[in-house]
Recover the amino acids of this structure.
């Protein structure tokens, strides 16, 4: 009982923190229309075989289910050191378009490679995922210029099953995460992403999630020619719908957190 009370209070605190941060972020920028993210994922859990992987396709729209402007194609291999520690090597291709005129081709394309460590914590009712990622990014812009950048990401994801103590078949669950994006060259704090949603694991194979994500990009404060320009932020709220198919393995009876690879 004490553990359940602790989990409930901690989850409530995380939700409160999320909404407070959201109001602080969106207050920095004018109101913008909601967008939408659609995510389809196929996962191969490591389990006792240790080796696993994933493949994913994602599209984003400037408005809800319309004005497409962005896609992601990603995949990777993973290795479970044990139930709580997973290593991953992955990569992908990304494209950004002008939603007003898709026929002109992408504004830029990106090829990305990343290395990742996931640490899981299973408490009585609440479960935590810590994700650490280092990315290498190669950009090609429409006019032909190219650029390389590194990035560091950390995400804290909390899951709370509502009708069971574990997230298995026929489980309804809440998911909440905050992720920071850091640029090692500078400006250091580049982006923040907040998510809150609800999911349902229909079977051992199929998982559906829907929720809200606020993504805010930051530009640094500057002082040039005697003029000070404060830090600027550009944020946008989005509807997120994700569908995951988890490939069955004979040893796949242990609880697996339904985290999104993005």
């Amino acid at each position: 009982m004490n553990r359940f009370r602790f989990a409930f209070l901690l989850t409530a605190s995380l939700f409160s923190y999320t909404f407070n941060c959201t109001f602080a972020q969106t207050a920095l920028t004018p109101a913008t229309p909601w967008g939408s993210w659609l995510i389809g994922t196929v996962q191969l859990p490591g389990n006792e075989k240790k080796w696993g992987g994933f493949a994913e396709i994602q599209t984003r729209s400037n408005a809800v289910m319309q004005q497409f402007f962005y896609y992601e194609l990603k995949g990777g291999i993973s290795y479970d050191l044990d139930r709580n520690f997973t290593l991953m090597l992955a990569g992908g291709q990304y494209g950004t378009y002008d939603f007003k005129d898709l026929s002109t081709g992408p504004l830029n394309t990106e090829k990305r490679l990343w290395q990742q460590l996931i640490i899981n914590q299973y408490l009585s009712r609440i479960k935590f995922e810590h994700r650490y990622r280092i990315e290498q990014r190669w950009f090609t812009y429409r006019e032909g210029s190219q650029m390389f950048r590194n990035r560091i990401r950390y995400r804290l994801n909390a899951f709370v099953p509502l009708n069971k103590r574990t997230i298995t078949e026929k489980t309804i669950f809440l998911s909440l995460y905050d992720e920071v994006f850091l640029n090692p060259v500078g400006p250091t704090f580049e982006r923040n992403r907040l998510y809150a949603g609800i999911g349902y694991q229909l079977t051992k194979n199929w998982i559906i999630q829907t929720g809200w994500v606020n993504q805010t990009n930051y530009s640094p404060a500057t002082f040039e020619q005697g003029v000070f320009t404060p830090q600027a932020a550009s944020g946008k709220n989005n509807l997120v719908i994700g569908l995951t198919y988890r490939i069955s393995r004979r040893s796949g009876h242990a609880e697996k957190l339904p985290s999104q690879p993005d």
